[in-house]
Amino acid sequence: MRDVHDNLDGIESLQDSKNIMESSVHFDNRSGYYELPMNMRFNDGHILSIAVYSSLFVFSSIANITVLVLLVKRRRKSSSRINMMLIHLAIADLLVSYHNFNLNVAF
């Protein structure tokens, strides 16, 4: 005896296989090349994200290095806990921006 849930499972598996078919690489017989699905092709959105991430990377680097240099110069005159915390914050922000922005642009 078939249940309603058995029918739903069949529909879900059909949709899953359809999604797999849409996201896979297809061979075009006319051109002789493999074609990627639309969501995997390089387009204007990728160019925009690369430009935005690159400009944020440059701005973040310049700003954090400026803050770091100013705080190190100020540290020589008078040392305080707040200045030490801000130095560590600028270093941590530089490390995060170097790793995060480069990985986002690369992938």
Explain what the structure shows:
The chain has 107 residues and is mainly alpha-helical. The protein contains 3 helices and 2 strands, in the order H-E-E-H-H. It has 2 domains: 1-41; 42-107. A hairpin with a 6-residue loop joins strand 1 (26-27) and strand 2 (34-35). The chain is rod-shaped.
Q: Percent of residues in beta strands?
A: under 5%
Overall mean pLDDT: 77
The termini sit apart by: 49 Å
Q: Note the overall shape.
A: rod-shaped
Share of helical residues: over 70%
How does the helix and strand content classify structurally?
Answer: mainly alpha
Would you report the number of β strands? 2
Query: Taking Cα atoms only, what radius of gyration do you get, to the nearest Å?
Result: 26 Å
Series of H and E elements: HEEHH
Could you give a short account of the major beta sheet?
2 strands, antiparallel
Biggest β-sheet: strands ordered side by side in the sheet: 1-2
Stretches where pLDDT falls below 50 for ≥5 residues?
8-14
Number of domains: 2
- Count of helices? 3
Task: Please outline the helices and strands.
Elements: H1 4-23, E1 26-27, E2 34-35, H2 44-77, H3 81-106
Antiparallel strand pairs: 1-2
Helix pairs in contact: 2-3
Overview features:
107 residues, single chain, mainly alpha, two-stranded antiparallel ribbon, 75% helix
Q: How would you briefly describe this protein structure?
A:
The chain is mostly helical. The chain is built from 3 helices and 2 strands; from the N terminus they run αββαα.
